[in-house]
Amino acid sequence: MLRNRIFNSASSALGHLQLLYRLRWLALLGQLITIATTSLWLDIRLPLLPLLGIVAAHFLFNLATCWQIRRIRSRRTTLGSLQLPAQIVADIAVLTLLLYFAGGAANPFVSLYLLPISIAAAILPAGAVIGLLLLTLLCYSGLMLWHVPLPHIHAFGHDQFWGHQIGMWLTFVIAAAVMVWFLLQAATMIRQRDQQLRQAREKALRNEHILSLATLSASTAHELGTPLATLTLLADELRHDPALPAAMLADLQLMQEQIARMKRLLGELSGRASAQQQEQVGLRQWLERLVDEWRLLRPAAQLQLRANIVDSVTVASHGGLEKALQNLLNNAADVSPAAVELAAGIDGDWIELHVLDRGPGVAPEVAELAGGVPVSTKAEGLGIGLLLTHATIEQLGGEVALFDRPGGGADIRVRLPRQQMEMTT
Length: 425
Prior knowledge:
Blueprint: H1 2-6, H2 10-41, H3 48-73, H4 83-100, H5 114-123, H6 126-145, H7 160-239, H8 249-269, E1 280-282, H9 283-297, E2 303-308, E3 313-316, H10 319-335, E4 340-347, E5 350-356, H11 364-369, H12 385-395, E6 399-404, E7 410-417, H13 418-421, E8 422-424
Parallel strand pairs: 2-4
Antiparallel strand pairs: 1-3, 3-8, 4-5, 5-7, 6-7
Helix pairs in contact: 2-3, 2-4, 2-7, 3-4, 4-6, 5-6, 5-7, 7-8, 10-12
């Protein structure tokens, strides 16, 4: 059950390959230390040339594994289903060859065969584990018949069994240390997967809300088209009515402007936004235009723009992003008794925007849930503003974060990737 939860995905397979890669470096270090200790301290005449050749081949194999990991990370190749079993087969083969030249099954380190079997049982399907188990049994049995015998160990005198016991103790220490290390790494992967699953569930829930809102918006835009057309005709008839008082002409003009604006907004809502939305403009110019449009919608609100941006930065005008930022400005203006500030700048590879107000600050429940599900602190609010803002900005590869502002108020930070948003001339 644990294996089914954790180890059955492409990302997990790459993580296991990285674990085997790091573990193999420890094995190589242990092999060199063991060969040096038995040859220099215990004065055992081992066939050093084949042993060191096997270690060198193991070293080159791990370098090839490193190259393979980099290719998988860069998505130039994929991790096949047989590559993890092949990695463990290579380790079993190396251990078998080392034991063949160092006493065979009589070598106390023969118990290290348990390590690859245990690791395989944790990360591979049952069929592969059984196959590796049979391979290990075959290798163990073969070492009982064919091997290079160990010479007499002079360091232990006549009590050769004492030397065997020391070897068994070292085997236990190595096996226990490796298993503890591997299980700790596996536990870390479990926590990371659980976190990814939680984020995926939250994103799916948010997308479900957005889809329902999109469906409702399209339906509403279609239904409002008829009454708006009727209002347009009535306004035109009133304008040409000779009995209309002159004092009402200004109000009628305002009514027609508002009807035209509503028709334009419904057109954008239905997906018929103008091609001008994707024009390339300077980042400072784009922000100034955004602020000017917002001031027309909120003439009574005060807004200060601070744009510390080089003039050479340009962006593709994006209607959805503009509406998302205007929504943040509206929320700030609704709660701030003082002027709202829009600060912009460049932070490395990011375009960073800050919407600053002097309102009551960010409530903990809003900071925790904003962007995941509809949440609002207004009595009449629907709670979809931050939800749509998060969705729009994340679609562009950006992120939104809410902070309390020093001295009171809120600081809403929007970060957008320069590579996707800007063009530097």
